[in-house]
Design goal:
The structure holds two protein chains of two kinds. Chain A is α+β, with helices and mostly antiparallel strands. Helices cover 35% and strands 25% of the residues of chain A. Chain A folds into two domains: 1-121, no CATH class; 123-206. Chain A has helices spanning 61-67, 74-83, 123-130, 138-142, 149-166, 172-183, 188-200, and strands spanning 6-13, 17-23, 35-39, 47-57, 87-99, 102-104, 117-120. The chains are: A alpha+beta, B alpha+beta.
Chain lengths: 206, 391
Amino acid sequence: MNHSNAFGRIISANSRECVAGYRTSEKELPQFASIVRIPVQEESSYQIYGLVTDVQIEQDDFLRQIAAADSISDEVLSDNRVNRNIPIVIRILFLGFQNESGFSHLLPPKPPLSLDSIYLCTLSEIAGFTSHGNFGYLRHILRVSNVPIAELLAVHLRQTAIAQTANNHSAWIKNAIEEIIDLMRDDSAGLLEILSALGDADISME
Amino acid sequence: MPINFEQLQPQILQSGISLGFQIQERNAQLQKAAKFFRDLASSSIDVERLSRVLNKKSEKRYAIPAEALIDGSHPADRETDQKITILAADGSQISPNRHEAVSFGLINTAIFIYRTHSTEIPSIVTETALIHPDPSSQYDDEFDENMIALQRDIAERKLLAKEACQLGCDNPVIALIDGPLQLFNLRQLFQNQKKLFEEYQSAIQQLSEKNIITAGYVDRPRADYVIRMIDFLKENPERNIQSGEPQFPLICDSDIFSLLLRPGERSSLFNLYSKNSMESKESMKIFFFYLNVGTIPKPMIARIEIPSWTAQNVESVNLLHACILEQTKIFGIYPYPYVLHRAHESALINFAEKNQITNLVAQELSRQEKSFFQKSNKQIMKDMSNRKISI
């Protein structure tokens, strides 16, 4: 199991999603719609796959006060970014899981535990998870609330298309879009919104 | 039981009326005291004689002029563009509570180290000490809230001295404490704690030997050391000051200096007289000045306490003045030194941490004594009442 790219820890979780804290001092900010995996500490072969649906930078009144100052010195800036315990809060939607039997696009049987680590998936991990089965994980994305689903899907498909192409599955993106059209056939307004976002996503279909 | 707002309303009204009358009286006292202060400034004060008389007659703390001009107002005389290392100390504590599962004390001390005009990331040093009751001790007060607060104050000074003295840098070093520099009533509090008193003296001695610019920052000071001096000097200083009623009970020093000091200016230096200071070593003597960290429509006065070795060096006082002013500007309309607030944040023990430490101590004791520790019934019921249940 690859343990590089750990970037945050679970703060709270339920059966559908979790919230993770991420220190601003860490270098790479996880991007919106990134696919992540969460190895569950107690079981070595069990890990949950999820999608970053929101990245929120927490505020406190102290930061507001500093932001209102005429100028901020480099020392104050670095102190607040490195030393102060103000995390970036990331919301992760569960897409499925992996255990000794392989991948599943059903919701994970149990959520991760507090302070479990989160890892960014590599291209081959993304390709492995998303090419399993028949796009079952898209169900979870399409029914998520309080998230711009069209934007989320567009960014996800663009990133995954790159991973699939790198793994010689260039037909994956066409099949994925056909699956979305099929799933959204009773919601023409929602489908148009998704197709419009996909148009802006500049996805290569080759 | 909810608050009885019906009963409270007329009381609030009455307190507002009383306050209104008090403000008129206070303004009158302020004008009178300011005039006496200016009159005193134009005459010469015999400081030697004043000290002698106070030493004989007073148990209170007074300001004694340390400069010929007592109503001086000095602007910050330089831009603090030079590199300065500032160390700020603060501490927090858990006081023993017999209703908790285990009764213990804990002191957490933090030093925030900040280098101005550098790209260096500030660093934080913390020290945490668990305090157990000593069953063999003959003194009950060793484990009480006041004694733990005092131990915290000493821990702050010790860690500040340790970190400041081991810096070994060429740039000036400023060591800041939140609140008064002097620990008052030291002798009474330390009557059973000779070791603590020696630790306190040793920390001050270390700072003194390294000639580190040291200061205590007192926000919104309510002391009346200068007012007492005015009150004392405006009549015959030989009078019996123990029996004399104060003439300006409604005002404090900061009221006078908010009239005298423009934004960014500091007052002249004063020596803080007390019975203890007369008997203590030179390095333990405290001086102070007032500083207006506010703006023209809204003066805000802070008192800066400094030890004798800092007070004797005008360059140090000027550097400290400019540095504190620069620090207070970071927070804009709420001027307060950034470094002190960060030291406070670093030292603070929050509620979750307190619970975690309590659990760790209880678990260890349970493991050793094979018995179960739990909160008192009173505390359990209080916690239940405070807990919000969402369904």
